[in-house]
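User:
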Amino acid sequence: MASREKTVAEIWTIYASFVVTLFLFIFVIQVVKPAEKPITPMMIGAFAFAALSYLPIGATLRKRFLDGAAESLRKDSQDAKGLRLWRTGNILSFAFAESTMLLGVALKFLGARWKVSGMFFALGLFLMILWMPKLEIYPSTNAPASPPMR
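Assistant: Predicted structure:
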């Protein structure tokens, strides 16, 4: 398997693992059944601030790495440095999305209701969908040109 295809397969496997963990988090919460108790609005606000701060940080890092990857991969679709940048950018963005979900898990174990912690899970899932790996935007220079569309 060529380096490009191997990297894409690895990233999709990692992505699937990150998505599956969302459901594992929910499963663990359902098994443990942490007791609901009042949480101060300041605590919820602090968690929300942390979760919302992941958006620009994750987006900036993702853009920085993927832009560098795009530049390298446009010249050579098998470029090891470009594939490494693409891989790193994707894994970082998955980690930021997952961190948002982890804040929801922490809130749930602190006693938050599903209405509150569920928003963190929803935001994390939204980010996972938004930051889905996309390598097809970097065309392979080895592929034959397709005929023009009419």
